[in-house]
């Protein structure tokens, strides 16, 4: 599809058509009524009426194609959804393991001393920053595929 428009096979495209269906139909009908009113007042709008009719036809084609596109995309989307859920599971395991390992770090021991403890804390802070970025990426993917509740439940540690 051209720049600025989502790919018709994407779930974003599907949701936009679904959400904007009534809104776009209303705007087209309102413009048609405006053109009728302007025509009654003898204001030339034939060029705009033609453009509006073209737009109406294109919009009707999009609405008709939406169910077909959805059925074509569903298997691909299901496969990708399963892959993302597995990636989230792996990440949740990684977070759980890190949580267990962090308790064994040297900065929890008094004998480590402040100098070594601060170095270890800096390492942990960098690790946590990386985990946070990965968490945001996983959450974004879960949101796109409409299962953020799965993600929240899995990573909540």
Describe the secondary-structure layout.
Blueprint: H1 11-40, H2 46-102, H3 114-144, H4 148-155
In words, what does this structure look like?
80% of the residues lie in helices and 0% in strands. By secondary structure, the chain is mainly alpha-helical. The chain has one domain (11-155). The model has no long low-confidence stretch (mean pLDDT 80).
Notable features of this structure?
mainly alpha, 4 helices, 80% helix, 0% strand, elongated
Order of helices and strands: HHHH
Overall spatial form: elongated
Output the radius of gyration: 27 Å
Helical content band = over 70%
Cα end-to-end separation = 42 Å
Number of helical runs?
A: 4
Structural category is mainly alpha
Average pLDDT taken over every residue: 80
For the record, the count of structural domains works out to 1
Spans of at least 5 consecutive residues whose pLDDT stays below 50 are none
Strand content: under 5%
For the secondary structure, the number of strands is: 0
Could you give a short account of the major beta sheet?
Answer: none
């Amino acid at each position: 599809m051209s720049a600025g428009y989502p790919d018709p096979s994407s779930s974003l495209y599907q949701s936009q058509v679904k959400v904007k269906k009534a809104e776009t139909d209303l705007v087209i009908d309102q413009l048609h009524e405006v053109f009728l009113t302007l025509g009654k007042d003898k204001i030339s709008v034939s060029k705009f009426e033609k453009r509006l009719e073209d737009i109406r036809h294109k919009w009707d084609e999009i609405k008709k194609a939406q169910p077909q596109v959805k059925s074509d995309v569903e298997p691909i989307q299901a496969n990708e959804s399963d892959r993302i859920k597995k990636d989230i599971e792996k990440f949740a395991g990684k977070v759980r393991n890190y949580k267990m390992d962090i308790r064994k770090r040297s900065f929890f021991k008094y004998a480590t001393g402040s100098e070594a403890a601060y170095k270890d804390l800096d390492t942990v802070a960098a690790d946590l920053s990386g985990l946070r970025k990965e968490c945001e990426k996983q959450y974004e993917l879960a949101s796109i595929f409409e299962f953020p509740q799965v993600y929240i439940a899995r990573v909540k540690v």
